[in-house]
# Entry
Amino acid sequence: MTADKPRVRFAPSPTGDLHVGNARTALFNWMFARHYGGEFILRIEDTDPVRTSRDFEYRILEDLAWLSIDWDEGPGKEGGKGPYHQQERLYLYDHYLKNLIEAGAVYPCYCTEAELEAERAELVFRKMMPRYMGKCRNLSDSNRKTMTDQGRKPSYRFRIGAGQIEFSDLIRGAMKFDAGALGDFIIVRSNGIPAYNFAVVVDDHLMTISHVIRGEDHLSNTALQLLIYEALGFKPPIFAHHSLILGKDRSKLSKRHGSVAVREFRERGILPEVLLNYLALLGSSFGGGREVCTQEEMISSFSLDRAGKSGAIFDEDKLNWLNGIYIRQGDLERLTERLLPYIRAAGHDVDNLDRAWLERVIDAVRGDLVTLSDIGTQMDIFFDDRYALSGEAQQVLREEQAMNVVRALRESLEQSPFSTDEAYHQIMASVAKKTGVKGKKLFMPIRAAVTGKVRGPELDKVFAILSLESLRHRAEDVISGPLGGRR
Ligand code: GLU
# Structure
């Protein structure tokens, strides 16, 4: 590490919602900055007015904030190296384009889309690598004038020389590209919009970025960017290209694998610290096989090596499993707060629910929650108007002795002088005594009758939460219902 504090950046193009792969890139940069006491910059790459939108930008910022990935400089946080939207930096790209034109490093290209497409097709037909063959490379001044007189607007292409482009990648080691195979590339389009490779070099240089950490899909871009650094006389940053997230079939994670946007996981009720923990962990562990890790630990134990050379498979089951752990272990009050929107969405009048009662309900069911949105169905057993016998519960109640157990339960509930908090063990003992039934044969019909389900929270908790009233009604309903007539 240099003596100076590192400056890293995350540079999303707001063309869609934040993908977990990009969130992981942001996370690596953010952890790197926090680990080494450096700065994390957020830059919005919005030069393409057709594909980018403000709406997507807001959504990306919101998702980053939800993940607690905060930036030291960027939108809403001026830091002296702005502006932080490429749209507002066009004058800078103009300036450096002029420098490159003067130095002869770039030249105007008048080829139309149709001409370029024809060239590409021809190369493919001849089984050659499609690339620009340099038609406009050596036009004379008068040729250029003719083109301009025809009303053609030029794009600007970077003149690539022969030889190798070499650099040392912090994750991948020595990298080598054959410049001759690349073809002169566009740095400013005919509509005046700078191409990604050009804008990113100008920005990373002016924003004094020390390390560029991004996905390995940018490796060949890095080769082109290094040529621009050289032509502009800029010292390039250190590059680190991390592996990508893969789907189970080992291809790059995309929509066809399922959810890929941070927002989708958020809406489904994955906790932000879980997604962060999972993305930091992906493809490795925190040492000693540990998988649950706080943000502080993530930062203190951060190492770029963990980003790995080989791709990491995104396993949603594991993410769910981790979410369950956090839900079980987290602070109950905080969990309740986070569950409120999901409880509301399930149709409950949250404002009129007693908070202490609600916390007891949540504490009882949290062991069965995988995501926050599961709360809706898991809570149903505690509401008389949502209580219903499931098919499985009916099955249990049809078994031999089951109705005897429920009848004994009703009797014990009638006689119970206790508040429900203490009643459970007394009632169970009395039902066991009355019926001579024990174990599963005793518990299952009671669970089925009292909750309408065959799985759920521990019965003592259910008894403690439900009123004696509800318990009596439910037992009564089962007995007087269609199953009650049977023996
Ligand atoms: N806007 C680019 C992207 O989203 C940034 C790549 C880079 O980090 O240079 O892929």
About this structure: The chain has a mean pLDDT of 93.
